Amino acid sequence: MNINLIDCTLRDGGYYNNWDFKENLVRCYLDCMDSLNVNFVEIGFRSLSNKKFKGAFAFSSDSFIESLSIPESLKIGVMVNASELFTSDMSPEEVINLLFKPAADSPVSLVRFACHLHEFKDTLPICNILKEMGYIVGINLMQISEASADEVILLGTEAENFAIDVLYFADSLGSLSPSQVKKIINLLQKGWTGPIGIHTHDNMNQALANTHEAVHTGATWIDSTVTGMGRGPGNAKTEFTAIEFLDNNNNNAGLQALSSLISDYFGPMKSHYGWGTNLYYYLAGKFKIHPTYIQEMLNDERYKDEDILSLIDHLKKVGGKKFNYRMMETGRLIFNAEASGSWSPSEFVANQDVLIIGSGPTVLEHKGAIEAFIKKFNPCVIALNTNNILEDSLIDLRAACHPLRVVADLNNYKNFSQPLVLPFSQLPAELQKLLHGIEILDYGITIEENLFAFESTQCSIPIPLVLSYALAIASAGGAKKIYLAGIDGYGSSDLRSSEMDLVLKAYSANNNTIDPISITPTSYDLVSSSVYAL
Predict the structure, then answer these.
(1) CA-to-CA distance for 141 and 337, rounded, in angstroms?
(2) How many beta carbons lie within 10 A of that of residue 462, not counting itself?
(3) 252-261 vs 23-35: helix axis angle to the nearest 10?
(4) Hey, which end of the chain has fewer CB within 10 Å, N or C?
(5) Rounded to a whole number, what is the largest CA-CA distance in the chain?
(6) Are 288 and 321 in contact (CB under 8 A)?
(7) pLDDT at 292
């Protein structure tokens, strides 16, 4: 049986480094793939989306690909997210004509669509257009594990009537077993008579086993990546698939090139970025939670081990099959309705100074001075989330607003003596039940980009970042001065820094606010003073 291996390292691996691969790595990688007799290199995405910086492999334009030193015998593919065909002001046909020129004039020979089940029917006719342009065309069905048997058969039957060279399916949640892989292929074959491919994820250390079963059951196209580099836990490893499925008998030169490529480039990158399965990815696969939730939490220092486990426990109850970036990063899905708070911060603040305590290392470094400041000036002290560095009796309120953060910190809140300020009435009913027994002060919130406004029982902020929520509480309460401690800042490339800059810019644009004063070191553009000089 002839197996077509697509190595998609530069495409799938880009989720870790923003598709910004360096020239030396790419040159060695392409030579290595050629030495291994890999059939196709899926070099990246082909995309029109340009919302934030991504490297060249997120777009993989023909001009960029032509600038690379690609061995003559190596065939090049790109992937298109099918969703981009249907979210543009242009028609899908116009999008395709903008993304692709005839294959005879392009370095690309293979185009695959990453396609959710609900996009499948509308994507099929687009395959015909690309076939007429001379491309090899494939569809990669995502989350097929969530389709019923009848639905899988229907998918194959519908594909049979269109010009598709290979019908792929992805183990998107990393939850499939070899027996389930076999079942899916058998069902697809009831309607589809063409080649079948599989893209496996390694949440549960099943990527290679699932690939083996797929080939045994009749799949002739497989995917892999060098060291498994790919979204979440990653994929089947090219160093194993090349040995198992390619004609590499006595090809020590290819294997030596691959070994050097890993030692020189991908091994160090893996140590830095940390892809590969672990306890959390395994649980995500077991409970069908989208792996990007895990990847995002592992890359965010705000989430500790116990936080991640708590969030996994919550997501397995409420469902986490579909990753939603807005849910993870902004909470818009919960706070997009009209705010409905019932508590006014003036009950606590009432023309006092306010000190907001963040979680930066400087709180511990200057703990004694901060506590002395509180005892001397008696401000209203608001601790963010579960900050417990300072003496507990010095804290007046605790503030939290991000739903996932609240879930992660539930057990800690139950051990604190202070009231917890939350947009309680806007939280899901299940989460409200989990908060039973905790003293809650309900201050409402809505999320509106670039807006910072506050009223007696509710506020509008650009991001449900807890500092922005605490600033609104202090401002709505009529604070005389607002001091900050432990708002240290992150590196300039850290997403949290840009989020904080956005919040502070929106806050300062409101004429009714007062400039907060940081009394510990900070990298943000804030008025600063020293806790030791006050």
Answers:
(1) 34
(2) 19
(3) 160
(4) N
(5) 80
(6) yes
(7) 84
Question: Rounded CA gap, 524 and 459, in Å?
Answer: 23
Give me the residue label for tokens 């503030």: 399
Q: Letter for the amino acid at 450? A: N
At residue 165, the 3 state secondary structure works out as: coil
User: What integer pLDDT is reported at residue 114 of this predicted model?
Assistant: 97
Residue 336: the pLDDT is 53
Q: Which tokens go with 497?
A: 């820094």
Please identify which residue in the block is written with the tokens 């395959």: 127
Q: What angle do CA 326, 331, 332 make, to 5 degrees?
A: 75
Run of H or E residues at 169: strand 166-170
Angle of helix 178-188 relative to helix 207-217, nearest 10 degrees, comes to 40
Q: Which residue in 143, 175, 289, 290 sits closest to 231, CA to CA?
A: 290
Residues 6+ apart with CB under 8 A from 479: 349, 351, 352, 353, 354, 380, 514
Confidence (pLDDT) at 235: 97
Q: Considering only CA atoms, which of 399, 395, 406 is closest in space to residue 472?
A: 399
Hey, what are 38's tokens?
């890999």
Q: What's the confidence (pLDDT) of residue 329? A: 45
Pairing of strands 458-461, 444-447: parallel
The pLDDT of residue 500 is 86
Q: Could you tell me which of 188, 74, 81, 192 has the C-alpha nearest to residue 126?
A: 81
Task: Report the pLDDT value the prediction gives residue 465, as an integer from 0 to 100.
Answer: 86
Helix (H, G, I), strand (E, B) or coil at 94: helix
Task: Supply 247's token pair.
Answer: 């004609």
Residue 333 pLDDT:
44
SS3 (DSSP) at 100: coil
Location of structure tokens 């003036």: 346
Task: Give the whole-angstrom CA distance, residue 205 versus residue 184.
Answer: 19
Low-confidence stretches of the chain (pLDDT beneath 50): 326-327, 329-333
pLDDT value of residue 331: 42
In this prediction, residue 495 carries a pLDDT of 63
How far apart CA 330 and CA 353 sit, in angstroms, is 29
Judge whether 529 and 519 are in contact, CB under 8 Å.
Answer: yes
Beta bridge mates, 11: none
Give the pLDDT score at 100.
Answer: 97
Separation CA 406–CA 400 (nearest Å): 7
What percent of the chain is helix, strand and coil (3-state, nearest 5)?
45, 15, 40
Tell me how many degrees the CA angle 366-364-438 measures, rounded to the nearest 5. Answer: 120
The token duo for 271 is: 């140590």
Say what angle helices 238-245 and 252-261 make with each other, to 10 degrees: 170
Q: CA 526 to CA 517: how far, in whole Å?
A: 7
Question: Cα(465)–Cα(444) distance, rounded to whole angstroms?
Answer: 14
Q: Quick check: 512 and 523 in contact, CB under 8 A? A: no
Phi, psi of 380 (to 5 degrees): -75, 120
Q: Which long-range contacts (CB under 8 A, 24 or more apart) does 488-496 make?
A: 488/358, 488/360, 488/361, 488/362, 488/520, 488/521, 488/522, 488/523, 489/360, 489/522, 489/523, 489/524, 490/523, 495/329, 496/300, 496/302
User: Measuring CA to CA, which residue among 313, 311, 316 is closest to residue 295?
Assistant: 311
